[in-house]
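Before the break, one more example. Copy the sequence into your notebook; we will annotate it together after we see the structure.
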Amino acid sequence: MRRPQRRGRPPPHLSLAKQQQPAPLLRTPMPSAAAATALAALVLLCAQQQHPAEAAARARHTSRWWFHTLNSSYTELGTAIVRSHPDACTGVYLYMDTFSTHGCAAAVAAHAPCGRFSIGATGEFSSATDAQIAERVRPYQELGVTVTVSMDLTTSSVLDGSAHRGVAAAVATAVRHNLTGLMLDYEPRTDYTEAHERAYASLIKALGAGLHQHGLELDICISDWSILTSFELYAATGVDRMMSMGSTYSGLNVTRDKGWVIAEQAAGVSGTQLAVGIGSMRSACQSNTHTHMFPLLFLDYLSSHD
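Here is what the structure looks like once it is written out:
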């Protein structure tokens, strides 16, 4: 079957990594909006400093930002940020939150639905309801940006292959809501083995093939730990985009960050697959690792390298 033409622009891609938004009900300051504004300004500043040829290359790049979607207040804040920076944000990655912004553990403990796209231990696909998904997705779609939803996996189902059973339902849900695609945010804490890597690659290939039949995309998260360093193996699956996490989030060592990007390219990650995550989190464990100078230096490097 001929693969349908998909919307998209030749990257490299810039992803503002998993930005943490404060719960509006806590009535705390909203540093996420300020952080997004500052980073957007840096993206634009880098573009303005380029020569015409470099500016043309920058126009081919995309920038996708991460947002939580717990309730309408989160959506209002996220869409306001996107509207404020149309030249610096071309798409969004969404966590489909309906119970908590901290994953599904709290929901499981409360015997409540989690809402996030997920393939469970027996291979079943679960998600928020269609009404909940539409409520969170459509406001971003109406802004004309790409909308990709994050999806979780269970290690046991990846290892024994049962996760493949959930592929059809995951694809159908993405198609039904006219998503740009899905993002596998799989970060296993156990079994760092070649068998695990190959089992995950098999699932990536199957899910990607299913999405591609409908002109949709599959992205995955990679990093500098666990099984997430098998760049060559995962690139060979035909995945559309491989977004770095901890390997490029921090601003304390830009040389190291560049080294990981170069390592990905050397392992066969193509220009259209390469997506570089830049940290904008303000959590306690990461508050001191993201400097203003880092985005300026690193973005300048990324925007001048195809």
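Residues 1-11, 19-31, 41-58, 284-292 have pLDDT under 50 and may be disordered. The radius of gyration is 18 Å. Try to locate both features in your own notes.
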